[in-house]
């Protein structure tokens, strides 16, 4: 993976108009640079112009109060929108407002939090590595999460903490990601953790606010009790996203479309799940300062409240301690 200040545990300025902007240093391999050109239309000139545009826009923005302006942060949004500048700026707006509206999901992304440590230890979320097409592959094993111990808010916060730890990785920004969701052995309790508003808001976040290019989603062994959830996800997904979601009745069927060399041993691959978890734990530990510092980002959220569903069925107040 490309080394970043975040991965090294560094902190970033959140001054929206710093006296001096951090310079971009390109440490991409020739292969990654070529992939960025083909996939995103990115070259040195496009990148430089995009960063300058976003910095000028942030500096003038009447509602943004505090925001990172370092290159790797802004490139999250530029690359996610293939350097379409208005769309990249809109995504950043929604990302900042999303973090404030849904604080229970996005604040205190602390790897040392007891619930976050327990989520890591379940071996339920495994970042497998980069496949032959340059895409980051992640495996979610639903059955590993104890539905009696974790709420949807724990799992939402853990998911976003894990994603944030990879957002600044330039290879992930360029190549995008592939998600494998293994539902084999999942129970009714797992599928009733999430309310309609949770699903709708997560899909809205994925479409408009999360700086990740989802290339494929492979759902394995979705039981009949989970079919309604699957239908809801498809209803809320964009037409483009629907074309990227694949349902497999068996693991054997799914493996045909995956890079098997990245899979854990029990999936026919060669990796030990314990080693993958240890790499994730180390990554989160090294990036802890940067993850926690995200809480310093600030936007006046009122103008954007209508973007998000905040119905009465939310039940838990934002900012409430989860214990």
UniProtKB/TrEMBL annotation:
Pfam families: CRAL_TRIO (PF00650), CRAL_TRIO_N (PF03765). GO terms for cellular component: membrane. InterPro entries: CRAL-TRIO_dom, CRAL-TRIO_dom_sf, CRAL/TRIO_N_dom, CRAL/TRIO_N_dom_sf. Residues 128-275 form the CRAL-TRIO domain. One of its GO terms (molecular function) is phosphatidylinositol bisphosphate binding. Keywords: Coiled coil. The keyword Coiled coil applies. The keyword Coiled coil applies. Residues 270-297 form a coiled coil. This is CRAL-TRIO domain-containing protein. The gene is 6047326.
């Amino acid at each position: 993976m490309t080394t970043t200040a975040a991965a090294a545990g560094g902190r970033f300025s959140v001054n929206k108009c710093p006296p001096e902007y951090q310079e971009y240093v390109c440490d991409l391999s020739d292969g990654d640079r070529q992939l960025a050109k083909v996939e995103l239309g990115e070259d040195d000139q496009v990148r430089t112009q995009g960063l300058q545009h976003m910095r000028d826009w942030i500096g003038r923005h009447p509602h943004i109060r505090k925001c990172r302006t370092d290159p790797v942060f802004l490139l999250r949004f530029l690359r996610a929108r293939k350097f379409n500048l208005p769309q990249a700026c809109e995504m950043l707006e929604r990302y900042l407002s999303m973090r404030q509206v849904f604080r229970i999901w996005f604040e205190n992304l602390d790897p040392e939090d007891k619930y976050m440590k327990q989520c890591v230890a379940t071996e339920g979320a495994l970042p497998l590595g980069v496949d032959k097409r340059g895409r980051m592959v992640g495996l979610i094993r639903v059955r590993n999460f104890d539905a009696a111990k974790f709420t949807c808010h724990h799992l939402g916060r853990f998911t976003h903490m894990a994603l944030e730890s990879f957002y600044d990785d330039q290879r992930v920004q360029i190549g995008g990601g592939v998600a494998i969701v293994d539902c084999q052995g999942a129970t009714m309790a797992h599928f009733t953790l999430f309310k309609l508003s949770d699903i709708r808001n997560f899909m809205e976040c994925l479409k408009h606010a999360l700086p990740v290019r989802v290339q494929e989603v492979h759902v394995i062994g979705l039981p009949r009790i989970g079919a309604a959830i699957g239908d809801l996800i498809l209803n809320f997904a964009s037409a483009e996203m629907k074309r990227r979601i694949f349902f497999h009745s068996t693991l054997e069927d799914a493996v045909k479309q995956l890079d098997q060399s990245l899979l854990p041993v029990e999936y026919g691959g060669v990796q030990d799940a314990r080693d993958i978890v240890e790499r994730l734990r180390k990554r989160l530990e090294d990036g802890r300062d940067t993850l926690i510092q995200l809480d310093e980002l600030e936007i006046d959220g009122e103008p954007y409240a209508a973007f998000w569903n905040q119905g009465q069925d939310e039940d838990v107040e934002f900012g409430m301690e989860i214990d």
